[in-house]
Amino acid sequence: ELQCSALDGDGDPTLKEMTYDIGYGEQTFLAYVEPDVKTFYTGDPPASTKVIPKFDGLATKFINMSNKQVHLYWEPYEGGELAAIEMLEPFSATGTASHPGHIFVFADADKNILERVYIEEHPNNNYAYDPYFVEDDPEATDDVLQKELNEEEYDKYIQWLDTLNFSDQYLEFTGRAYIANYLRNRPLHHIWRADYFGQEHWVETRETHFEQVPPQEVLTRIEDVGSERIMEESQPRLLSEYRTPGQTKLNMTLKVLSVAPRVFEISNFLSPTEVDHILQTAGAITLGRSSIGDIGKGQDKSIEDSSISDTRTSLNSWISRETSPIFDAIYRRAADLMRIDEALLRDRGPDEYSDWPTSGSLAESLQLVHYDPGQKYTAHHDFGFSDLDDPNKDKRFTQATRFATLLLYLNSEGLEGGETTFPRWSNAESFDQLRVNPQEGKAVLFYSQLPDGNLDDFSQHAALPPREGEKWLMNLWVWDPKYAD
Ligand SMILES: O=C(O)CCC(=O)C(=O)O
Ligand SMILES: [Fe+2]
Fold it and tell me: 3-state DSSP helix/strand/coil percent for the chain, to nearest 5?
């Protein structure tokens, strides 16, 4: 059995019972409450209160509470043309990273303005277009709703209303808005605790490091599928003769860099041999200009929402887990690191997790990213915004979005700058962003979801441009509770 320092059954002390009432009587919910910042420090805290970060960006969610298609635009500060972001279907939502003072517009197809939205500070994350609401007059509102909406539409309207009402009470209890939809399940996957800066966890993996480059002819594509890929404990790992001799287990250490959001550093996650193999594979690939919104609804929306934008100026490409036994080993090691069954990070056979609604991998292919000096990725969230739950679907598996990101740094020599930053990290000492230096072989794990199922606005992060040299990195994204349909 693989060992680790996490004590299962302890629960997560950040989850607190909250009582709320959104019109159906009193109910309880285990809500994530960010602990007092003083507890983030093992010694004397530098101050007794949280610093207000210099960076004021936040996740903004736009909800169309009408039965008409509504177009969302961004109004540039210079007062130029409205920039189209997205068309919102009736009762759907979208979102993007934004800043206080930004102006968005709900309009019809002819750009006739229905409502102008002024973005405020965190925690004002939710912005709804509701043409039916009559101020201070619930009866008149109800009359309008009865007149304008059919039964199914009315139900959807109420679902959004419940979400907004819940968010208000959640905000009062936790200090954050609820930016999932009422009521999203807690993540199915393990979330490592982050109690204080510098806290260390450890976890074992059988996927020890490759130490020698295997000859090209054995680095072939993995053809096995489903349960053929299950590896028994006693079975040697793939190509073990090229790995650290005499070692059957590798002990990985996760060190807490940030408590909220939860960010962990794992140095030497990849060996130099593995990094070489990745970069060699990369050399054979043509990278394309990074687009935003590669993978279905709600991903990485930028304000411009053009698929190619100034938000992300790097180049990227995708590499599947099956590319070679080394890539497979990286996924298996990552699964152990996150304490997720490796079977969930690949397509599964009919006998694996057969009660799950999809048999597809919960992980995306590895996204290989290359930055030249000056190229960057401005602050964004990796999660996306989901549509309303389908009442006919198992609630455990709705509101799928990215759950965790594992960043794999592939080079550092000759690189200056290019840090990954978390500009909204909670701390008591610096209003500046948390900077993570790229270091060859290092991994950074962070969560886009909170232990209570809400999305973590503070998971916002950016890639600073290299000042000198190039930067190579890979993203491994794991979804919860499933990937796509
Ligand atoms: O390059 C980095 O450091 C971060 C990249 C990132 O956040 C992304 O690709 O989503
Ligand atoms: Fe990202």
Answer: 20, 30, 55
- Spell 7-40 as b/e; 16+ CB within 10 A means b: eeeeeeebbeebebebeeeeeebbbbbbbebeeb
**Burial of residue 185, with CB atoms counted within 10 A of its CB: 0-12 exposed, 13-18 middle, 19 or more buried:** middle
Predicted confidence at residue 421, as pLDDT, reads: 98
Intervals of the chain under pLDDT 50: 293-308
Query: What local confidence, expressed as pLDDT, does residue 307 receive?
Result: 44
Task: Give the pLDDT of residue 240.
Answer: 97
Calculate ∠ Cα 91-97-103, nearest 5°.
75
- 288 dihedral zone (left: phi>0; alpha: psi -120 to 50; beta): beta
Q: Write down the pLDDT at residue 303.
A: 40
Say which amino acid occupies 434: L
Residue-range domain boundaries for the chain: 15-35+58-174, 200-480
Task: Tell which atom from ligand 1 comes closest to the C-alpha of 473.
Answer: 1
Q: Which ligand is nearest to the CA of 448?
A: 2
Backbone angles phi, psi at 65, to 5 degrees: -95, 20
Rounded Cα distance between 198 and 256, Å, is 5
User: Does residue 407 contact residue 443 with C-beta atoms inside 8 Å?
Assistant: yes
Cα separation, 456 vs 454, whole angstroms: 6
pLDDT value, residue 337: 98
Mutate to test the pocket of ligand 1, among 290, 383, 406, 407 (most ligand atoms within 8 A of CB): 407
Looking at the domain covering 15-35+58-174, what would its CATH class be?
Answer: mainly beta
E strand or H helix at 145, and its extent? helix 138-148
Q: Which 3 state secondary structure label does DSSP give 342?
A: helix
Pocket of ligand 1 (CB under 6 A): 369, 377, 382, 407, 420, 461, 463, 473, 475
Residue closest via CA to ligand 1's atom 2 equals: 463
Residue 468's identity, in one-letter code, is E
- Degrees, nearest 5: CA angle 69-129-398: 75
Residue 476's Cα: distance from chain center in Å?
11
Instruction: Please tell me the distance from the alpha carbon of residue 61 to that of residue 401, in angstroms, as a whole number.
Output: 15
Atom 4 of ligand 1 has which residue's CA nearest to it?
A: 463
Which ligand 1 atom sits closest to the C-alpha of 464? Answer: 3
DSSP string of 276-295, one letter each residue:
HHHHHHHHTS--EE--S--S
Can you read off the two tokens belonging to residue 364? 């995306």
Per-residue model confidence (pLDDT) at position 11: 84
Look up the CATH number of domain 200-480.
2.60.120.620
Strand order through the sheet with 315-319: 200-205, 250-258, 263-266, 443-447, 401-409, 471-480, 366-371, 315-319, 288-289
Rounded to whole angstroms, how far apart are CA atoms 477 and 483?
10
User: What DSSP designation does 243 have?
Assistant: B
For residue 421, which ligand has an atom nearest its CA? Answer: 1
